[in-house]
Amino acid sequence: MVPQREVMSRIAGAFAALLVSLAGSSAQAQAPTSAPAASGERKNFLWEVSSLTNKVYLFGTIHAGKKDWFPLPEVVEKAFTESKVLVVEADITDQEAMMKSAPLLMYAPPSNLETAVGPEEYARFKKHLARYSLPEAPLRQLKPFSAVSMLVFSEWGRLGYLPNFGVDAYLIQKARAELKPLIEIEGVETQSALIGSLTPEQNRQIFTGTMKAIESGLTSEQITGMVNAWQSGDANLLLEIARKYNDDVPGAKEFEEMFIWARHDAMVKKIEGYLGEARKPHFIAVGALHMAGPRGLVELLRKRGFVVKQL
């Protein structure tokens, strides 16, 4: 049996990956984040945002990756080096914080995943466990969102994108090696509380819909498309890829609102605070989809009068 601490470590990365995968976009309601890059001009998922006294770099991340992605493109590495502080959604390497949040993410016996989703859906889930060589016993105690997160992250791994090469983890390790201050714009506790707020019905819906997406090949298709969009710095393409998930998975639009857009007001307030400091650049790394569209962080900050440009 895999120890609970190891299971929770896996879930830490899985949550981040699933938040991005679930956060689709209604294309009809979205406008381009920026004009497409000119032919031959390479862009990154990186924006410089400036105030009168300071600037921040907004960097959209992918939560699993490949060894040959590092070091990151020169412009990204330069922005990181110039910054005095690294800001992340949550410190996914903080095992202690993850363990403290476990009661929000797992059932206490005698409750378990099978009793929550029913024997038929649980049997489908077990088939996926065999496919990804995941242990049943510890995952049986996970709540549906947590359990299906493990499947999504395993699909990332099957496609060659591994958590130990996640961009977030790379930046956190780099900051610690350079003794660069690290702060969380949300934190494990806040994100776990959001997941813990899902009702039993919402948990079942997200569980069933995500398994359907995996079985149909939609998840695999989306992961590949998202990585391509991220590597080309194309926020418009990322939104287009996300739209298909919303169209095909029941409830995805509602989860999008809860897991992405509803979080932005609090994020923007903190970023405005960073921009109010004097000559102390911050490097802000959050999931790539948080940057996209008229309700994304990039446009929200532009509308507040800050100077924004993609690098």
Written description of the protein model:
- Strand 1 and strand 2 form a beta hairpin.
- This protein is α/β, with parallel strands linked by helices and 311 residues long.
- Helix 1 crosses helix 7 and helix 7 packs parallel to helix 10.
- It has one domain.
- Helices cover 54% and strands 9% of the residues.
- It contains 15 helices and six strands.
- It has a six-stranded mixed sheet, sandwiched between helices.
SSE run? HEEHEHHHHHHEHHHHHHEHE
What is the count of DSSP helices, taking H or I runs of 4+ residues? Answer: 15
Oligomer: single chain
Query: Which structural class do the helices and strands define?
Result: alpha/beta
How is this fold's topology laid out?
Blueprint: H1 4-22, E1 46-50, E2 55-61, H2 74-82, E3 85-88, H3 95-105, H4 113-117, H5 119-132, H6 136-139, H7 144-158, H8 167-177, E4 182-184, H9 188-196, H10 200-216, H11 218-231, H12 235-248, H13 252-259, H14 264-275, E5 282-287, H15 297-303, E6 307-310
Parallel strand pairs: 2-5, 3-4, 3-5
Antiparallel strand pairs: 1-2, 1-6
Helix pairs in contact: 1-3, 1-7, 3-9, 5-7, 7-10, 11-12
